[in-house]
Structure formats: C-alpha cells, structure tokens
Design a protein that fits this description.
globular, 12 helices, 2 strands
Amino acid sequence: MGSRIEQLKTEIAPLREQLISHPLYTRIQNLADLQVFMQHHIFAVWDFMSLLKSLQRSLTCTEAPWVPAANPATSYLINEIVTGEETDIDQHGQRMSHFELYRQAMIQAECDTTAIDGLIQELKAGTTLDNALLKCKAPDAAADFVHTTFSTIATGNAAVIAAVFTFGREDLIPGMFISFVRDLNQQTASKAGVFQYYLERHIEVDGDHHSHLAYEMTEQLCGDDEATWAAATEFVKGALSARIQLWNAILSKIEQPVTCA
C-alpha cells in the first residue's frame, strides 16, 4: 500500500475510531432495536451501490456504441468490484446484490420495508431523488446521509468518489456487533440469520479482496496530484462525519421512550 494511502488513513483515523466505538452498537439489545437500525441503514446500503455504479460509469464505457476506456487498469478494478457487489451469492448460492441481500435480511427480521421499497418504486417511475426520498417518507437522518453521498457523486470527480467508496463504508462495523447479531439470531428463532450472513459476507469481501482493489483504484486515480489527494481526504472526512450523524440519529431513535396511544 502506498504512502499516500497511509497518509489518508492516518488523517481520517480519529473519525473512523469514533464510528467503530460508537455507543449505538452496544445500545442495540433486542430485535426491535435492530429493526430501527436496519430501517435506517438500508439507505446507506443502497447509496453505496449508487457510489459504485457512478464509478463504473466514469471509469468504463457503459454506452453503445462502445469506445475503449481511458484506463483499462482502473476499468478492470471497478468491474471486478461491481461483480462482487452487484451479483454476489446469498447463503443458498443464489445470485443477488448486497442491497437485495440486505432487504432479504430485513424481511426475515420483520422490519418495515415500506420506505426503501417506496424509494425504489419512485426512482423506477422516473421521480427525482429528492422527491423520491420525500414521497417514500425516508427517515430524515437516512435522507440526509443519502444527500451527502449524492453530493459526492455530483462532483463527477472519479478520484474523490473512489476515495469515499474505499474509506467511508461497511468495514466500519465492528466485530463485536457481529457477535451480538449471532447471539440475537439464536435468541429469536433465526430472525437475524440473513443479516448475520450479510455482515459476515460483506465484511469478508470488503475487508479482503475488494479493499485491496479499492486502494489500488484510489491510488491510480489520485496519482501524484496534491490537490486531488487533499480533496479526496476532505470528502472522506465528510462521508465519515455523515455516518456518525446517521448513527447518532439511530441511537436517539432507539432511546426514545415508548409512548402509549
């Protein structure tokens, strides 16, 4: 791993530590708490896929007539990642995206999927993202997080998008949370089994093969340009700060006292 990547990692280390040690993880104590978490987090899973596809669009040719990509090396890296994220396997060996796997986990955990399903339906119908988020009644904190992600996409800067993709995502979930999910799955007659698989699979893939590909892609795109590395670092910090705000909001929601009708 290059020195530039190591420098970026050093600069964002305090924010990453805040996320990994966030009190939200220990506050989730039962299936109802997990449902609140998943009903917010699914929007981050969805916009992760949007980051991914925006990179593929920038780094490869996805139109007809086809023309060669500017850099076949980065095209290879992003296409390799897309294959794993968009067409991975579930616990039964069936092909699906990580987003679809997460939604399957929500169904098993008896989560309300109305908001995320509404978002997808609105987008398929041609509704703008802002209006789709309003119409589907996405949680405010989730909508704010999505807006931050799409502000990154809107830059059109592949290096910045690649850095946020590489450093701002799912390897931030600590191992102790996975252990809790395993225990909860046993306590709830396998209502968290798919979610457990999702976490283990996603972190296995992201933390190993995909992370190395993503580091290499970010290094290639940022090159030796100081301004590009500075911009990438600032956007990664913004993405991590947005995740902290999302985690704070979920924690606040879980801790709200239950009011009787």
